[in-house]
Design brief:
GO molecular function, one term: DNA-binding transcription factor activity
Protein name: DeoR family transcriptional regulator
Pfam families: DeoRC (PF00455), HTH_DeoR (PF08220)
CATH architecture of the largest domain: 3-Layer(aba) Sandwich
Largest sheet: 7 strands, parallel
CATH class of the largest domain: Alpha Beta
Keywords: DNA-binding, Repressor, Transcription, Transcription regulation
Radius of gyration: 19 Å
Number of strands: 15
């Protein structure tokens, strides 16, 4: 197997399993452990995985956010409940911003009943689903496509956002610590901040696993949001921190 094919195979395997050892990968692709280490070093340098002791992982850490495709597989029912609840807070005729996250992107399934709408987004999955949809005015943010986040970032996207105003921004993030939101990637943080600045109302959509997790870069205080939606009770210590920060958390329960 050629190098590019093997490295894509490693990524595909990690998409399914989350983690794998060097020995497992060596046996799977019939190459030496040293070759696998070189593959993992290159893929880590590209930001596509993180090396751990004895292997590699697609799971998030304080400095590494998972690939969009991997995150789409996680907490699916909970994210769907959160998206439905967020959609119920949107009205026909409004302009909404949807960020690059799989959680906020789930709102798309509920937009047909709210038309007419204007949707501003950098999320390629949202763009692909809404392109050509009657009653939806779609404004896409230009910029450089990032495969890992399946969206567009950089100066062009930022400049476009600075020229726009919206009724509602729907954003997610990878970490809630105390009364603040964090993310691992500073370019992602910058664009999310501009989305929040461009919107009259701001909603944070996060599944409950994000509470108490670490991430490197501060995004904003939770008090900046008009609503913080999650799909289950966060851990007791995280809930206590939210109460101490006087954050009103909306828990979208199962039917």
């Amino acid at each position: 197997m050629k190098i590019d094919g093997r490295r894509q195979g490693i990524l595909d395997l990690l998409m399914e399993a989350g983690t794998a050892t060097v020995d497992e990968l060596s046996a799977r692709f019939d190459v030496s452990r040293m070759t696998i280490h070189r593959d993992l070093d290159q893929l880590e340098q590209e930001g596509l995985l993180r090396k751990i002791r004895g292997g590699a992982s697609m799971q998030a850490s304080g400095q590494f956010e998972s690939d969009f495709r991997y995150r789409q597989r996680l907490a699916g029912p909970e994210k769907q409940r959160i998206a439905a609840a967020a959609a119920s807070m949107i009205g026909p005729g409004q302009t909404i911003i949807i960020d690059d996250s799989s959680t906020a992107g789930g709102v798309v399934k509920h937009l047909a009943e709210l038309r007419p709408l204007t949707v501003i987004t950098n999320n390629l999955a949202v763009i692909q689903e809404l392109a050509g949809t009657a009653g939806i005015t779609l404004i896409t943010l230009g910029g450089q496509y990032t495969k890992k986040f399946h969206g567009f970032f950089g100066l062009l996207a930022e400049d476009t956002l600075r020229s726009l105003r919206a009724d509602v921004a729907l954003v997610s993030t990878s970490s809630i610590h105390g009364g603040s939101a964090f993310h691992q990637d500073q370019e992602v943080v910058q664009l999310k901040r501009l989305m929040l600045k461009a919107a009259a109302r701001k909603m944070l959509l996060v599944d409950h696993s994000k509470f108490g997790r670490p991430a490197l870069h501060f995004l904003t205080e939770l008090g900046a949001f008009d609503a913080v939606l999650t799909g289950a009770e966060p851990p007791a210590d995280a809930k206590a921190e939210l109460e101490a920060a006087d954050i009103d958390l909306t828990i979208v329960e199962k039917d």
